[in-house]
């Protein structure tokens, strides 16, 4: 990882790649939410990585307090709010009741 980070000054990281990493850590490696959150915080702390650090800080905070929602669902809602694309429409009842999404 240090070699990769040394390639900077900025390395673009796709949000999809971050979400896929969370999925793999949870489903394949059976990481707890706390361990996933810790890994995400380490990622967020890398200034050389180019992604929305503030958004991901919010995602991690919500991820820890909303154990019934996936990281991807939380990301979708918070990203929609930040971009002004609200209300987020979803058929996911958990998103409607817990994060303020609306059914179409």
Question: Would you kindly provide a written description of the structure presented here, covering whatever features stand out?
Answer:
- With 104 residues, this protein is mostly helical.
- The protein has one domain.
- The chain is built from 6 helices and 2 strands.
- It has a two-stranded parallel sheet with strand order 1-2.
- Helix 3 runs antiparallel to helix 4 and helix 4 crosses helix 5.
- The chain is globular.
- The model has no long low-confidence stretch (mean pLDDT 91).
What is the N-to-C succession of helices and strands?
A: HEHHEHHH
Q: Which spans of ≥5 residues are poorly predicted at pLDDT below 50?
A: none
Overall helicity = 55-70%
Rough outline: globular
DSSP strand content: under 5%
The number of helices is 6
Would you count the extended β strands for me?
2
The side-by-side strand order for the widest beta sheet comes to: 1-2
Query: How would a textbook summarize the main sheet?
Result: 2 strands, parallel
Would you tell me the structural class of the helices and strands? mainly alpha
How many separate domains make up the residues? 1
Computed over alpha carbons, the radius of gyration is: 15 Å
Q: Could you give the distance between the termini?
A: 43 Å
Averaged pLDDT, please?
Answer: 91
């Amino acid at each position: 990882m240090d070699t990769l980070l040394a390639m900077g000054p900025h390395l673009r990281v796709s949000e999809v790649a971050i979400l896929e990493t969370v999925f793999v850590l949870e489903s394949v490696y059976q990481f707890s939410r706390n361990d996933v959150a810790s890994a995400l915080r380490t990622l967020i702390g890398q200034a050389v990585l180019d992604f929305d650090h503030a958004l991901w800080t919010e995602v991690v905070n919500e991820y820890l307090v909303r154990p019934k929602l996936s990281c991807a669902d939380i990301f979708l809602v918070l990203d929609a709010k930040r971009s002004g694309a609200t209300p987020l429409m979803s058929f996911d009842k958990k998103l409607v009741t817990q994060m303020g999404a609306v059914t179409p």
